[in-house]
Design brief:
about 10% strand; alpha+beta; four-stranded mixed sheet; 17 helices; about 50% helix; about 425 residues; two-stranded antiparallel sheet; elongated
């Protein structure tokens, strides 16, 4: 018989024998199993209250009814009643077209449960960490007591969470997933979940629309390809960084910021002059594109200000250990490659692509990072600079602080893929 909680917080039938040959997918399921094995019902309840709980839904219903949820009870032969099943993140099946899984928490279930709903909520049915939670009035009161202290259910942010089974731990796919680890560690997701559900179908769809204006498969394909081609990184950012890299190679040493600014101004002026000259084409002589002196000086000033911003960010990076003492960022294409790894999984969670397509995109992101960067630390500094140039406006606020916290977690946690996966 399954392990069923009593309304008084006790448990029946008590401690259970260890499951033979079963490995918990993650720390969440391992904690549930260990609490169950001890017969420690309060601990089991605490873990359920802190966990994301995914419930199966009809995709057609979810798409047609934004903001609403429907229950899909099943017959449980152990309780001989209808029950409602929920799964923790490590126990989810790979995403398919239909059904989908939305994400909830124990407090939500306690609030929405009505008379006539199933008498039990079953956590991870059929698994060694299964728990059958009575849903009567006393049972739901117990749910609320355990859920009340939990401010944010789900995995902790800025911590490395790994699927020990069900996700790659080595090889090229794992490397490509680790390229997106900045995003997943920050958001509290498993870094190596290739069969990705994220925050659930509905929320993943809403997030793609809000942040990326992506609502269709075609839009996802275009956006995914743009990121893999580093097409969303500013050309001006790349121009000044590549110019400095070229200067560093020419002079075999560090490049003074004033020298960098002057060289950039010279290049901008030469490009404007060249663009103004007439050109011979198949249609004859084409007039060049001219700009006013004020427009030209505006371009020069903008580029020189950008160089100042980059120099100040890099100085802060060195002070905070993101860069070595004499280190600098040579390209911020990492910003797009990291997001490309994320976009592959977001598209899968929102059912805009297949698992095979998502995996192919993750592999490409991994290869691009290996070719263009020298180490995880090199990649991370470039990713964070791109993020800061895009969002932070040199405030060194949350956009920077959260990225720094994520970098430190990924570079210091012994279980981090940046510590366990070889670069080459």
């Amino acid at each position: 018989m399954g392990w069923t909680a009593g309304d008084d917080g006790g448990a029946a039938p008590g401690p259970v024998a260890p499951a033979q040959g079963w490995q918990a997918p993650s720390a969440v399921e391992r904690g549930l199993y260990e609490a169950k094995a001890r017969g420690d019902w309060p601990a089991y309840y605490d873990l359920v209250a802190r966990a994301d709980l995914y419930m199966m839904q009809s995709r057609a219903f979810v798409d047609a009814n934004p903001g609403r949820s429907s229950l899909h009870p099943y017959w449980n032969p152990q309780t001989r009643t209808m029950c409602l099943a929920v799964h923790t993140g490590g126990m989810l099946p790979p995403p398919v077209d239909d059904p989908v899984y939305n994400c909830y928490d124990l407090g939500w279930f306690a609030e929405i449960w009505q008379q006539g709903d199933p008498p039990y909520l079953v956590v991870n049915p059929g698994s060694p960490c299964e728990g059958i939670l009575p849903a009567g009035p006393e049972g739901r009161a117990l749910w609320k007591r355990h859920a009340a202290p939990v401010e944010r259910p789900g995995l902790a942010r800025d911590a490395v969470h790994t699927l020990e089974t069900g996700g790659p731990l080595s090889g090229h796919v794992a490397f490509g997933l680790a390229v997106g680890a900045h995003i997943n560690v920050r958001n509290g997701h498993y870094w190596n979940a290739m069969a990705y559900h994220g925050s659930g179908y509905r929320i993943e769809k809403q997030t793609l629309e809000r942040w990326w204006s992506v609502t269709t498969r075609e839009e996802w394909q275009v956006t995914q390809e743009q990121l893999l081609r580093a097409g969303m990184v500013s050309d001006v950012w790349e121009f000044v960084l590549r110019l400095r890299r070229s200067m560093a190679l020419d002079f075999a040493g560090p490049v003074d910021v004033d020298h960098w600014r002057q060289a950039a101004a010279n290049v901008v002026r030469r490009r404007v002059e060249a663009a103004a000259e007439p050109r011979l084409t198949e249609d004859g002589v084409t007039r060049g594109h001219t700009v006013t002196s004020a427009e030209l000086e505006g371009q020069v000033t903008g580029v020189q200000r950008l160089i100042g911003r980059i120099a100040r960010y890099e100085a802060r990076f060195r002070a905070d250990g993101l860069l070595p003492e004499s280190g600098y960022v040579h390209s911020v294409e990492a910003w797009d490659y990291g997001r490309a790894s994320g976009m592959a999984r977001w598209g899968l969670a929102a059912r805009l692509c297949s698992l095979r397509e998502a995996e192919a995109a993750v592999l490409r992101a991994g290869r691009l990072v290996q070719v263009n960067y020298r180490s995880w630390e090199d990649f991370s500094a470039a990713y964070i600079l791109g993020r800061c140039l895009h969002f932070d406006e040199e405030e060194f606020g949350d956009w920077y602080a959260t990225a720094l916290a994520t970098h430190r977690a990924l570079t210091t946690d012994p279980s981090s893929p940046w510590r366990t996966l070889p670069w080459a």
